[in-house]
UniProtKB/TrEMBL annotation:
InterPro entries: Ig-like_fold, PapD-like_sf, Periplasmic_pilus_chap, Pili_assmbl_chaperone_N. The lineage of its organism: Bacteria, Pseudomonadati, Pseudomonadota, Betaproteobacteria, Burkholderiales. Residues 32-151 form the Pili assembly chaperone N-terminal domain. GO terms for biological process: cell wall organization. This is Fimbrial chaperone protein. GO terms for cellular component: outer membrane-bounded periplasmic space. SUPFAM superfamilies: PapD-like.
Length: 249
């Protein structure tokens, strides 16, 4: 079963949940490196390094989720494609833990597979007898990083197709489809018309064979006839093009 998530920046996501704790000074902190994992038939394993820079032990759970984009929405679902060892670890203050990630099955022959690796802090349930748990709350952190498994076929790359269309509510939106067998990663994406910025996005990822949309601000009526400029850096080179605005319905 896949869980739908709102579109967002996937280069690095930091989620937080509330956990009962016995004092705000005990907040744990953990780090993760690298922030992106790529596997292939030639390199079927990778190593993650988890670190604890806090002053108390931290227990971390590592999970892999299948990642797809349907109807412009990010979705995550359970997967058994990957081996994580260990999937649960307690790291002492100032310590590190190595986590090995490996493919359970061969890569797809034609298309890249995408996953998310979720590293989540498991809150401690230890509470001193002299202080009830209700006196303190602590944020339980989670890091969510992308992982890609290259197809066996070495040829092929992302193929962006950019257009402007009308949203159901009538506003314009940028549509970016990726017709290639590998993901498209845009950075510093800027959409403008007649010198007016309509949208900006730091990181924008479109998976292989998928599409995503970005809402655009209303343009100045005086610039309505001007083309819409789309500029970004990407993993297939710089993108700089003019797109004709969508015609009113």
């Amino acid at each position: 079963m896949f869980v739908r998530r709102a579109p967002g920046i996937w280069g690095f996501a930091l989620a937080a949940g509330l956990a009962m704790w016995c004092g705000a000074a005990s907040a744990g902190t953990f780090g993760l490196s690298p922030m992106r994992v790529e596997l292939s038939a030639a390199a079927p394993t990778a190593v993650l390094t988890l670190s604890n820079s806090g002053d108390t032990p931290v227990t971390l759970q590592i999970q892999a989720r299948a990642w797809q984009q349907v109807g412009g929405q990010d979705e995550q679902g359970a997967t058994s494609d990957l081996i994580l060892n260990p999937s649960l670890a307690t790291i002492p203050p100032g310590g590190e833990q190595i986590v090995r990630v490996a493919l359970r099955n061969p890569p797809d022959r034609e298309r890249e597979r995408a996953y998310r690796l979720l590293v989540r802090e498991v809150p401690s349930t230890e509470v001193p007898e002299a202080q009830p748990a209700s006196l303190g709350l602590r944020m339980a952190l989670a890091m969510d990083i992308p992982m890609f498994v290259a197809p066996i076929a070495k040829e092929g790359r992302a193929q962006p197709l950019v257009s402007i269309e009308k949203a159901p509510a009538g506003a314009s939106q940028l549509r970016i489809a990726n017709e290639g067998p590998r993901h498209l990663r845009l950075t510093d994406l800027v959409v403008s018309q007649g010198g007016q910025v309509l949208a900006q996005q730091g990181v924008f990822v479109v998976l292989a064979g998928a599409e995503r949309r970005l809402p655009l601000a209303a343009a100045d009526p005086k610039a309505a006839a001007a083309p819409i400029a789309v500029k970004a850096q990407s993993n297939v080179g710089p993108i700089e093009l003019n797109v004709q605005a969508a015609s009113p319905r």
